[in-house]
TrEMBL record:
This is Transcriptional regulator. It comes from Burkholderia pyrrocinia (Pseudomonas pyrrocinia).
Length: 94
């Protein structure tokens, strides 16, 4: 596969998921977001979200929790937060 842009060789679904998880990490409620909420915010089909989360989990950037009833949630790891800060800038670093 070839990249359409030299500036952004990353999969757009991967970038959208990281951006959404980064937004979730800044949520004042402090709760992890459900997979449906992440999919809706990232504007991705659930199957694509699950594929991307598998990749991010394997890279140590996110932690996904799947329950027996099919529900689940995901959040950035500390390493994931560091990567997001590098990619998107630390808008509200404190």
């Amino acid at each position: 596969m070839t990249s359409e842009s030299d500036e952004s060789p990353l999969d757009p679904a991967l970038v959208a998921t990281l951006a959404t998880l980064n937004e979730a990490a800044s949520d004042p409620a402090g709760k992890t977001w459900s997979l449906p909420k992440i999919a809706k915010r990232a504007q991705l089909p659930m199957s694509t979200l699950r594929r991307v989360l598998t990749q991010l989990d394997a890279a140590g950037l996110s932690a996904t929790t799947l329950n027996e009833d099919g529900t689940g949630s995901a959040a950035l790891t500390d390493e994931g937060r560091t990567v997001c800060a590098q990619l998107f800038g630390a808008n509200d670093a404190g």
